[in-house]
Amino acid sequence: MRHKDDNKSEAIFQATIQLLNEIGFSDISMSKIAKRANVSPSTIYVYFENKEDMLKKLYLNVKEKMSLKMLHGINETTPIQAGFELIMSNLKDFVLDNKDYFLFLEQFTNSPLIARMCLDESIGFFRTLHEFVQKGQQQQLLKQVDANLLLMYCYYPVTQMAKEHFKGAVVFNQEKLKEITQMSWDAIQA
């Protein structure tokens, strides 16, 4: 039995993300991933049952990294408005610093694969974020609507601005972040 090597697992993840962003889901294969990762195709099966298992684990890995970054610096004493500003700033930093991860998430999220894989496991990564929203609602600082709706007003402006940034249409700087953060806050506050 072969032992798992974290470096090989990470190389497989990185190769998969790069290939998915270059050629998409329909053209990706385990042999292409193995070649890009400089491992034998059989090595991939030491780490993953099949391609679907690998994609699921990769998706969960990236979602966990994103959630940890978004929540960095948030605790039970963080004021609600300051917390939302920090969450949006953290998300901006994650997206701009991890373009490949972001593009992978965008592609995966818009794929029928996500529904087929039933990735409810990723919801737990954002439990603290939902609790933060509920705290804001309890303090009557945020609108009394579905927490997911409020979070959309924080997540999507950042990701849409990042897409425009990556296309070269805008520069996603602190000034732009401040503008969209204020607009989002205006939309969600009670």
What this model shows, in words?
The chain is elongated, with a radius of gyration of 19 Å. Helix 5 packs across helix 10. By secondary structure, it is mainly α. It has helices at 6-23, 30-37, 41-47, 51-70, 80-97, 99-109, 112-117, 127-138, 147-167, 174-188. The model has no long low-confidence stretch (mean pLDDT 89). The protein is built from 10 helices and no strands. It folds into 2 domains: 1-48, Arc Repressor Mutant, subunit A (Orthogonal Bundle), CATH 1.10.10.60; 51-188, Tetracycline Repressor, domain 2 (Orthogonal Bundle), CATH 1.10.357.10.
Mean pLDDT: 89
Distance between the termini: 59 Å
Q: Flag low-confidence runs.
A: none
Beta strand count: 0
In CATH, what is the class of the largest domain?
Mainly Alpha
* Main sheet record: none
CATH topology of the largest domain: Tetracycline Repressor, domain 2
User: So what's the overall shape?
Assistant: elongated
Helix content: over 70%
Query: What is the level-2 CATH architecture name of the largest domain?
Result: Orthogonal Bundle
Brief overview:
The chain has 190 residues and is mainly alpha-helical.
Which SSEs are present, and which pair or pack?
Elements: H1 6-23, H2 30-37, H3 41-47, H4 51-70, H5 80-97, H6 99-109, H7 112-117, H8 127-138, H9 147-167, H10 174-188
Helix pairs in contact: 1-2, 1-6, 2-3, 5-9, 5-10, 9-10
